[in-house]
Amino acid sequence: MAIMRSGCEGCTEITCTSSKEVLAQDVAKNVRTAYDRVKARGVAACLFGSGGTCCRHCNMGPCQIIDGVESMIGVCGATADTVASRNFARIVAAGTAAHTDHAREMVRGFIETAKGEGPHQIQDVGKLLSLAKVFDIATEGREVNDIALELGKKALAEFGNQEDTPLSMLKRAPAKRQAIWKKLGIEPRGVDREVVEMMHRTHMGVDQDYENIMLQASRCALADGWGSSMLSTELTDIMFGTPVPRRAIVDLGVLKPDQVNVTVHGHEPLLAEALCIAASEPDILDLAKKAGAKGINLAGVCCTGNEILMRRGIPVAASFVQQEMALATGAIEAMVVDVQCVMQSVAEVAKNFHTDIITTNYRAKMPGAVHIQFDEHEALNSAKRILKHAIANYKKRGAFFIPEKTKLDVVVGFSHETINYMLGGRFRASYRPLNDNIINGRIRGVAAIVGCDNFKLSDDAHEIIVRELLRNNILVLATGCAATSLGRAGLVRPEAVEFCGESLAEVCETVGMPPVLHMGSCVDNSRILIAATEMVREGGLGDDICDLPAIGTAPLWMSEKAVAIGQYFVASGAQVVFQSLPVSGAKKFNKYLVEGLMNQVGAHWNIAEDPMEIARLMIRKIEAKRDALGINKKTERVLFDMAMRRDLGTKTIGDVGCTGPVQP
Predict the structure, then answer these.
(1) Closest-CA residue to 579 (of 444, 446, 451)
(2) Which residues pair with 299 in a beta bridge?
(3) Dist. CA 598–CA 327, nearest whole Å
(4) b/e sequence 58-94, b meaning 16+ C-beta within 10 Å
(5) Is the backbone peptide bond immediately before 62 cis, with ω within 30 degrees of 0?
(6) DSSP state, residue 44
């Protein structure tokens, strides 16, 4: 239902109760959000841009291409398929570059920690030793920090590798998947190299074959999923601790009326972790009390929020679409931002209040914001400077409104390791119970709900999809702002079994887990790759990711990163569903994405517009995988008599080359 506000005709498709409460207050009467701007534009999106057939790659254009019309190809002769594939590939490259730059900073921070510099220490030694094996690092008899330093240096070298050797993390994938990548020539080498080559090949007059362009797009995306993103997640876990299940809150109501409210927005956890440490330092707490506050209240926004939510249980105030609404409460002293998904409009919204937007990264400055550079070499001091600035704003706070009635708790912290432990315990950690329950049909399959939220569609789309999946006994994995949205809807907690089909509810209640597993930020989608690989290795569900009864969706995707994520899942053998892709103006290329990729990588993109349509498509795909595996067949229960048992004892196992009697 649209929310009506003074001086505004209404913002479309806001369903979140907290958001509607905040925007209905007098304190927010002058705030204009992205919902207002979408409504005010009043014009349809450009058909050429939406269809992917607008080319601006050289200065002979821009060229607007109409597929099949000879007079409407590019000045250079580029067809709709060439232009759309180049544009799509550049989206993949940009998304990969964003994750890569993030990951490089995490690796550099990891190296500083290994050297004993900065406020952090190696937290997960077991994971360090496990990852060291992947990089062929000797560990016997060595100091933890010495191992970590070698790992950090080898990880950093993965970004700039100029040899034709594949990335180290690829060996973690199922053997059959590795063979497919090798056959297609899409094993990523240096992470940066794949981004550069993608940009080169889409330059005017270079690669003009859409299938060949997409091979490199896959290689580039894989460099993200199995390279930079996976490195970032693994090293962050080692440095700050691998997440474990914990209860927390996701809602605008987590702001505190009597504390200095500081929201942390962006994507790089080095800053957020330093702020967490600094906020509990005695000198900072004393300063806050002198200002009249009872303490410092940190709250997350977007994916930085998910990082500290997973590891520290620090609440998330807002997702991407709520960042302006968080400011509209008038209760925030500072919104501290680093990189990615920060809307320029937040500086304009902040002008209505005492709030400062504090930029912290030289890559990402903003007119109207205060810049305090975060120095990873002086992380704690940098964090304290930021908090001192926020504390100074506390006495300036005017009228504010914090919603109180809508707070719902969530249970988060489901890393691959956590799932492994929950299913089998410390000594028998295994994906066997998950596989068995998929095989016996209690769980029909696994669905990943990832990516952004988006002002184009109703903010309850994630909830609609997931409720239908749960009703059909499909376990859900969630990351990023999608996970935050589901948390607001009350679906990321054990009590959400009330929305599940009977058999999924039974499994979740037995294990003690929610039916929607929060697995972290958008960079943490690599956890889902590892979980899928472990399901393959456990056996019984095929020998590659493409065999699994599993599918992913980013229904409200907004960022180029989401397309890079989608492409690395497809290239890894997992089906994905998006609400739209900017390729509809090129018939052959569009068909290649939604059908032709299947012949190469065993998966393809799917497009569905309505949330319920997305859910039902996902269910159909999962059931088709079950059919292909033969696990949908109902077998008659047979009680063996003694003659049948004796006969069984003389059978041979020809399928695996064995010739002896079957052992009891």
Answers:
(1) 451
(2) 263
(3) 45
(4) eeebebbbebeeeeebbebebbbbbbbbbbbbbbbbb
(5) yes
(6) P
Among 10-14, 66-70, 267-271, 651-655, the least confident range? 651-655
Q: Is 127:242 a contact under the CB 8 Å cutoff?
A: yes
Which CATH architecture does the domain made up of 251-396 adopt? 3-Layer(aba) Sandwich (3.40)
Structure tokens, 192: 């940066």
User: Whole-angstrom Cα distance, residue 4 to residue 482?
Assistant: 25
* Residue 557 backbone dihedrals phi, psi, to 5 degrees: -60, 145
CA angle at 446 for the pair 444 and 447, rounded to the nearest 5°: 125
CA distance 1 to 15: 6
Cβ neighbours around 201 below 10 Å, total: 21
User: How many residues appear in the chain?
Assistant: 664
pLDDT tens per residue, range 117-155:
989 999 999 999 999 999 999 999 999 999 999 999 999
Q: Which tens digits make up the pLDDT trace of 480-503? A: 999 999 999 999 999 999 999 999
Q: How far is residue 539 from each of residues 159, 278, 550, 662, measured CA to CA in Å?
A: 33, 46, 15, 20
Beta-carbon contacts of residue 224 (< 8 Å; ≥ 6 apart): 95, 96, 99, 100, 191, 564, 565, 568
Alpha-carbon span 582 to 47, nearest angstrom: 10
What is the DSSP code string of 153-177? Answer: HHHHHHHH--SSPPPGGGGGS-HHH
Q: Give the H/E segment covering residue 76.
A: none
631, 438 Cβ separation under 8 angstroms: yes
| Mean pLDDT score, 268-273 | 94
The secondary structure of 228-291 as a DSSP string is IHHHHHHHHHHHH-----EEEEBSGGG--TTSEEEEEESS-HHHHHHHHHHTTSHHHHHHHHHT
What's the whole-model pTM score?
A: 0.92
Domain boundaries, the chain: 66-240, 251-396, 412-629
The pLDDT value recorded for residue 643 is: 62
- Report the distance separating Cα 139 and Cα 130, nearest Å: 10
Query: Which two tokens mark 391?
Result: 């504390």
Strands 246-249 vs 63-64: parallel, antiparallel or unpaired: unpaired
Q: Are 100 and 363 in contact (CB under 8 A)?
A: no
Joined together, the tokens standing for residue 74 give: 């590019």
d(CA 424, CA 188): 34
Residue 660: the pLDDT is: 32
User: CA–CA separation, 516 vs 169, rounded Å?
Assistant: 27
User: Which amino acid does the sequence have at 213?
Assistant: I
State the angle between helix axes of 144-160 and 191-201 in degrees (0 to 180), rounded to the nearest 10: 10
What value does the mean pLDDT of the chain take? 92
CATH number of 66-240: 1.20.1270.30
Taking the C-alpha atoms of residue 650 and residue 663, their distance in angstroms, rounded to an integer, is 10
Euclidean distance between CA atoms 586 and 496, whole angstroms: 42
Which segments of 394-429 does DSSP mark as H helices, in order?
Answer: 416-424
Looking at the domain that runs over 412-629, which CATH code has it been given?
A: 3.40.50.2030
Q: 35: closest CA among 3, 8, 11, 7?
A: 11
Domains 251-396 and 412-629 share a fold: yes
141: three-class secondary structure by DSSP: coil
Peptide bond into 582 cis (omega under 30): no
Closest CA to 648 of 664, 636, 659, 635: 664
Q: How far apart are CA 200 and CA 210, in angstroms?
A: 14
